[in-house]
Every structure is written in structure tokens, then in C-alpha cells.
């Protein structure tokens, strides 16, 4: 019996297409200079996927992340709003890496601070406050970390320890590494941040909590002023893979997640140094128009949209329409 593979392919296409779409890496995520390893395919999608008690993966659009009124949002008066150039209110920042276009194109905007998922500023203009990050607890990230972090008023720690392929750490291991590598730098007014978690919930494939569940356990174990403390918490958020949710649904999900962070922070400052809505430029602009004023009036101290790269916030090295909307140019 012969098989017409063209007909077979046509019949299977509806079942294969969603898998093909969701397994396609973000156009910038595969860059080895990026903060995400090249072998981590579709890692950001994991930040919007949760696991149930029976390990079934579900999109993280639960009610707890859709209620804008879960936690009271109040303006922050913390000194963390200080910035290096006097632009804006000190909250709005840029996420970038060594492959990003020059950040100078964002001069004279609402941007006041920047981070590169590393300890290197990669020639960032001095007018922006640079915040170093210790991405993980092993070399090369730890090489010369203490000396490179010296002189900076804020330090961020481990990148998404709740995601396999990112910093990928249990809470206990993270607390031990934090005590060794981060806490000793908390002196002379330097503020240090808890590891940056994703927006998922439940457990990952290693049985490690994700999102604010991971963060909550970390803060419970890191609560000794003499050996372990975090001045601020940090969380990352991404919208539905492929922009499949409506803008309003993504706005609601984002606000719910940020409110969850604020609640988990329990009085600590809150940073959102990495967030993005997937989809076309028009949808991203509509999303930003809805969340930026909300963020500016919220208890969030700093935030940064993902990211300075051609195709998102820039085009041919210049600020594009989306970048202009974000930076207030």
C-alpha cells in the first residue's frame, strides 16, 4: 500500500503547527551574548507556564494573576528612585547586552538606569546608572565579581534560579551562594537584591518551586541581618507565547504578577528588570501604553522592558517607534 505523504502532511499540520510555533526560539534568545544560553530553546515561554500537582503544564493565566486589586498599589517614596541622570522618575531602565546598539540613542529620555545581566556595562553611557548582576554562582560569572561590583550602589543577583537552563538553583543552594557572594558586599549603603524569579508557579521539572513561590521560600531562609538579607526583590514577566492572548489579558496578567511580587516582598522594594509582551509592534505599544503609567504610579522602584536590540526597541541601531513609546522620546 502506497502512502501519499503530501496528504498525510496536510492532515497532520493542524496538530504539528502549535508545537512548531511554540518551540521556535525568540529571534534574540539564541544569541550567545544574550543572558540566556543558546541551548535554552523557548525558555521565556516557561515563565508563563505553570505546572499542576500532577506535573501538567498550563498557561499561567490563573485568577491570582488577573486581579488588579489583589494588593494595594501605592507610590514608592524609597531612595531607590534616585538615578544617575535626573531623567524621569528614576524607575524606567534598559535591558541590553554586548550586542545591543549604543545606548546613547536613548539619551534625553525617561531612561535613567541600565543593566546587562552581567557585571560589565559594555560601554554604557555614564549618564545612566549601571546596575551589575551576578548571573550565576559559578565561573565565569563569579570571576572578579567582588571587584567589578565595587562602587555600585545596587547589585542584582542570580538570574531566574527557578528555571532549568538559567541560574537553575534550589532555594537552599541559592541562599548559600548568596551568603557567600552577595551579602558581603552589602556595606556602605549598597543595596542588594534577591534572585530574579520568573512569573511561573508550581514546580519545574526538578521539583523546584517557580516564581513567587521560589522567592517566598528564599526570603524565609534569608532573613538574618547578620548573615543574609535582601533589600529588594526582582521578578521577570513575559506574555503569552506568540502573542496569542489579547493585550488586555496580558495587561491583567502582568499587573497581577507585579501585585504578587509586591505582596511577597513584604515591605521590601520591588524591581521588574525584565518584561515583555510578545506579538507585533502595535500590540506591544498598546501594552506599554497601558502598563507604563500604572508602573510609574506603583510601588515598583525600577523596571526595564526586554530589550535594546534591533527588532524590539531599535531598528538599524536607532530608536524605533516602540522604543520611542517606551523611552518617552
Explain this structure.
- The chain is of the alpha/beta class.
- The chain has helices spanning 5-22, 43-46, 145-149, 171-181, 211-221, 247-265, 281-296, 321-327; strands at 49-51, 57-59, 92-95, 113-115, 129-130, 154-155, 191-197, 232-238, 269-276, 300-305, 314-315, 318-319.
- It has 8 helices and 12 strands.
- Strand 1 and strand 2 form a beta hairpin.
- Helix 4 (171-181) crosses helix 5 (211-221) and helix 5 packs parallel to helix 6.
- It is globular, with a radius of gyration of 20 Å.
Main pleated sheet: 8 strands, parallel
So what's the oligomer here?
A: single chain
Number of helices: 8
Percent of residues in helices: 25-40%
β-strand amount:
5-15%
Cα-atom radius of gyration: 20 Å
Spatial arrangement of strands, main beta sheet: 5-4-3-10-9-8-7-6
Order of helices and strands: HHEEEEEHEHEHEHEHEEEH
Principal-axes shape call: globular
Q: Low-confidence segments, ≥5 residues, pLDDT <50?
A: 5-83
Q: Kindly, what is the distance between the CA atoms of the first and last residues, rounded to a whole number of angstroms?
A: 66 Å
Class derived from helix and strand content: alpha/beta
Number of strands: 12
Q: Give the mean pLDDT.
A: 80
List keywords for this structure.
329 residues; alpha/beta; 8 helices
Quick rundown:
The protein has helices spanning 5-22, 43-46, 145-149, 171-181, 211-221, 247-265, 281-296, 321-327, and strands at 49-51, 57-59, 92-95, 113-115, 129-130, 154-155, 191-197, 232-238, 269-276, 300-305, 314-315, 318-319. It is α/β, with parallel strands linked by helices.
Amino acid at each position: 500500500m502506497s502512502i501519499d505523504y503530501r496528504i498525510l502532511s496536510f492532515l497532520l499540520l493542524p496538530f504539528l503547527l502549535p508545537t512548531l510555533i511554540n518551540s521556535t526560539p525568540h529571534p534574540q534568545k539564541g544569541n550567545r551574548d544574550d543572558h540566556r544560553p543558546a541551548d535554552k530553546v523557548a525558555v521565556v515561554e516557561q515563565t508563563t507556564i505553570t505546572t499542576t500537582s500532577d506535573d501538567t503544564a498550563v498557561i499561567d493565566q490563573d485568577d491570582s494573576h488577573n486581579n488588579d486589586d489583589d494588593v494595594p498599589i501605592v507610590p514608592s517614596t524609597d531612595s531607590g528612585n534616585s538615578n544617575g541622570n535626573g531623567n524621569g522618575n528614576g524607575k524606567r531602565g534598559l535591558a541590553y547586552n554586548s550586542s545591543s546598539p549604543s545606548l546613547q540613542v536613548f539619551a534625553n529620555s525617561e531612561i535613567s538606569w541600565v543593566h546587562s545581566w552581567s557585571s560589565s556595562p559594555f560601554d554604557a553611557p555614564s549618564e545612566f546608572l549601571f546596575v551589575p548582576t551576578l548571573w550565576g554562582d559559578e565561573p565565569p560569572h563569579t570571576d572578579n565579581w567582588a571587584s567589578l561590583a565595587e562602587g555600585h550602589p545596587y547589585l542584582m543577583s542570580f538570574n531566574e534560579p527557578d528555571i532549568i537552563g538559567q541560574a537553575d538553583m534550589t532555594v537552599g543552594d541559592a541562599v548559600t551562594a548568596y551568603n557567600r557572594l552577595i551579602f558581603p558586599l552589602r556595606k556602605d549603603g549598597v543595596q542588594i537584591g534577591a534572585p530574579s524569579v520568573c512569573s511561573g508557579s508550581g514546580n519545574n521539572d526538578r521539583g523546584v518551586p517557580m516564581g513567587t513561590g521560589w522567592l517566598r521560600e528564599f526570603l524565609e531562609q534569608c532573613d538574618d541581618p547578620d548573615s543574609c538579607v535582601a533589600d529588594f526583590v526582582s521578578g521577570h514577566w513575559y506574555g503569552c507565547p506568540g502573542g496569542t492572548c489579547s493585550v488586555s489579558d496580558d495587561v491583567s496578567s502582568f499587573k497581577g504578577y507585579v501585585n504578587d511580587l509586591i505582596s511577597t516582598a513584604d515591605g521590601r522594594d520591588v524591581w521588574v528588570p525584565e518584561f515583555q509582551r510578545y506579538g507585533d509592534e502595535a500590540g506591544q505599544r498598546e501594552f506599554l501604553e497601558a502598563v507604563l503609567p500604572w508602573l510609574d504610579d506603583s510601588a515598583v522602584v525600577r523596571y526595564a522592558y526586554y530589550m535594546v536590540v534591533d527588532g524590539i526597541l531599535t531598528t538599524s541601531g536607532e530608536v524605533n517607534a516602540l522604543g520611542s513609546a517606551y523611552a518617552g522620546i
